[in-house]
Design brief:
The chain is built from two helices and ten strands, in the order βββββαβββββα. The chain is mainly beta. The relative contact order is 0.25.
């Protein structure tokens, strides 16, 4: 029996870490492209891509997650994320490898961290992400960097 879409998650790796995000928060999995600069913002913080005619921010994953273990220099994939199902895309997240879909019981988010839970999955520990919190973290990273003049 297949679980409802709300209970399906896309799994992916960033370095040696396993992540999962509800599929309802993922618009598309695309091939990673070169980032363009954001005026007044360091490339060490974020860049943008042209996503169907709109500028889509891509915040460096080292700024979103602590720590990123053994992350590759050139990620292969770009997850196009929205903060809520049926909302327009608002963040690009680069991933080293996309593994596929899994059926996972839903989780209740607490606090403000985008990683709302860590749970065993296929003999590893998966970091379960909340798309809304992930987008909020990315916005905060950009705002703080701009305020510091990074």
């Amino acid at each position: 029996m297949t679980m409802p879409e709300a209970d399906r998650m896309l799994t992916f790796e960033i370095g040696a870490s396993l992540f999962a995000v509800p599929i309802g928060g993922v618009h598309e999995v695309a091939t990673m492209v070169e980032l363009a600069c954001i005026p007044t913002l360091s490339r060490d913080v974020a860049g943008v891509i042209n996503y169907r005619g709109d500028a889509l921010p891509v915040v460096r994953r080292e700024r979103l997650f602590d720590p990123v273990e053994d992350a590759e220099e050139e990620p292969e994939h770009l997850l196009v994320i929205s903060d809520r199902p049926s909302s327009p895309p608002c963040l690009g997240l680069n991933a080293d490898r996309v593994l596929g879909l899994v059926d996972v019981a839903p989780t209740k988010a607490r606090g403000s961290d985008p990683v709302v839970e860590k749970r065993p999955m296929d003999g590893r520990v998966a970091h379960i992400l909340d798309p809304g919190r992930l987008v909020a973290r990315a916005r905060k990273v950009i705002e703080e960097a701009l305020a510091r003049g990074e």
